Amino acid sequence: MASAGCDIVRVAVPDEAAVRALKTIVKESPIPVVADIHFDFRLALGSIAAGVDAVRINPGNMKRDAHLRAVADAALAAGIPIRIGINSGSLERSLLKKYGGPTADAMAESALSCAEKFERWGFTNIKLSLKSHDVQQTVAAYRKVADACDYPLHLGITATGSGLEATLKSAIGIGALLLDGIGDTIRVSLSSSPVDEVEVGVAIVKLLGLRPHGVEFVACPTCGRCKVDLLSYLPAVKERLSGLDADITVAVMGCVVNGPGEAKQADIGIAFSDDDVASLFRKGKRYASGPAREMLEQLVNDARRLGRTR
Ligand code: SF4
Question: Tell me, what CATH number does 143's domain have?
Fold first, then answer.
């Protein structure tokens, strides 16, 4: 996961065996480890003693104040934060009754009332998350909490499933909040490999300009004006520039209508015209023209050179 771009990893700690494993995990993990605790506060205490970098608790299933306070005291002594992780599927019964179900208001009240308890006990090293499978509900809950407090927020849409729809749910929900300036860390939830989740998350923050984005392609979707085999040219160019570690935009455009304009705005670009002829653009100017395949070759070489100089 770290190799894929993950900055912080959360691990479930469901029992004593998991607590015992934590010492090794913490020691060997190249990134901070957050222990995810449900029901049993003693697992949180054991995890803190094992050296985790943070603890996540869910007030919906850790209900006794004495237990929450014991976790807060241990985290304070260890100097680590606690994430108060609200999940619409495990809200307190009193809130479900008050709001008639797991609404955004119910989620926000659950998070804020737990944070207030911690504050009363002198613990403010808090981060909040409010996850639901419903994109609109999740976004509304985060906006309410962002208006009500200054605590860091960990964003995520949960239980999204798999495939395109699941990926889009995270992209829309997390993306909408980040564009509002809300959110400090993110987690993409997919019924898939954690590495897939990290890859989607990294793509979201890159596309929002919150992380170096590497090579970003601006490409023509093709239409009736496209006279070249752009749908095979584009993957070939992407493949050949896939290892280039530089923040540059590369345009690959299909015709002379919008092609030169888009290519001029990119760091480097190619625009095809009829008869398999193409032009190359850099710094807003056309700098070469010729047979399409020769121009494609030159585009790849010049993009690599540009990337190296960056
Ligand atoms: Fe059509 Fe040209 Fe736009 Fe591509 S760049 S979609 S070919 S108009």
Answer: 3.20.20.20
